[in-house]
């Protein structure tokens, strides 16, 4: 890639490791997101830049080449971190998630072919991908799965990811990440579905198929998907 981003990425400035990518601090308010499997980040950069240009709170894109994406660094904790620390209430988090969905789905779609009803969807919008910037407010990160699709699919995906945490065994990695916030996840999920536009039930089959095909989920996580689906249906029915 251009500039010195490739040379500056090292263990010394590693900020975090996700399931598919590492994030490095480049200094000067920039970070590098690098995919470990060589995944091409340019499509991700295009849609992230598109939503940011239309006023949606996403990190500003500087450049992308191959597996490397350079963008503005976002300050603050994640929403998940704030929930675990007790600095955010589940009902507040639910309404913030719903607001991000509604704002995203109201944006104009990028130029190009699309199906009727298609909008920009994130497909990974959950508390660990929302940064609570002290100045900007909530900022949505990790646009790797973003594309055109239906709002119902996007809402269902968020609900399903929340439900996967809710049904995770106490000794699982998901439960450990949620920590003391684990018990509040069902209430958060139900409140999210009550607040958001869109019907998770209409997008649930598609969300389930995508999660079942996700190579980053292990066998045990995939086995629990049917239980998570039942939880989403219960939350959606309660939301009306």
UniProtKB/TrEMBL annotation:
Domain Aminoglycoside phosphotransferase positions: 15-113, 118-184
InterPro entries associated with the record: AGP_Transferase, Aminoglycoside_PTrfase, Kinase-like_dom_sf
Entry keyword set: Transferase
Source species: Beutenbergia cavernae (strain ATCC BAA-8 / DSM 12333 / CCUG 43141 / JCM 11478 / NBRC 16432 / NCIMB 13614 / HKI 0122)
GO molecular function per UniProt: transferase activity
Pfam families named among the record's database cross-references: APH
Protein name, UniProt field: Aminoglycoside phosphotransferase
């Amino acid at each position: 890639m251009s500039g010195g981003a490739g040379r500056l990425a090292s263990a010394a400035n590693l900020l975090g490791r996700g399931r598919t990518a590492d994030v490095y601090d480049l200094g000067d308010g920039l970070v590098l997101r690098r995919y470990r499997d060589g995944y091409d980040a340019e499509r991700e950069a295009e849609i992230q830049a598109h939503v940011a240009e239309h006023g949606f709170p996403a990190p500003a894109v500087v450049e992308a080449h191959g597996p490397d994406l350079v963008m503005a660094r976002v300050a603050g904790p994640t929403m998940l971190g704030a929930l675990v620390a007790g600095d955010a209430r589940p009902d507040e988090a639910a309404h913030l998630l719903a607001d991000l969905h509604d704002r995203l789905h109201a944006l104009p779609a990028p130029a190009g072919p699309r199906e009727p009803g298609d909008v920009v969807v994130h497909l990974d919008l959950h508390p660990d991908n929302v940064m609570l910037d002290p100045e900007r407010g909530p900022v949505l990160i990790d646009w790797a799965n973003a594309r055109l699709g239906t709002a119902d699919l996007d809402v269902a995906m968020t609900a399903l990811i929340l439900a996967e945490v809710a049904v995770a065994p106490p000794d699982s990695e998901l439960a450990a990440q949620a920590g003391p916030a684990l018990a509040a996840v069902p209430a958060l999920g139900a409140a999210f579905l009550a607040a958001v536009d869109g019907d998770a039930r209409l997008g649930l089959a598609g969300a389930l198929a995508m999660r079942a095909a996700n190579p980053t989920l292990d066998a045990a996580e995939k086995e629990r998907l049917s239980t998570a689906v039942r939880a989403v249906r219960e939350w959606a029915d309660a939301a009306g």
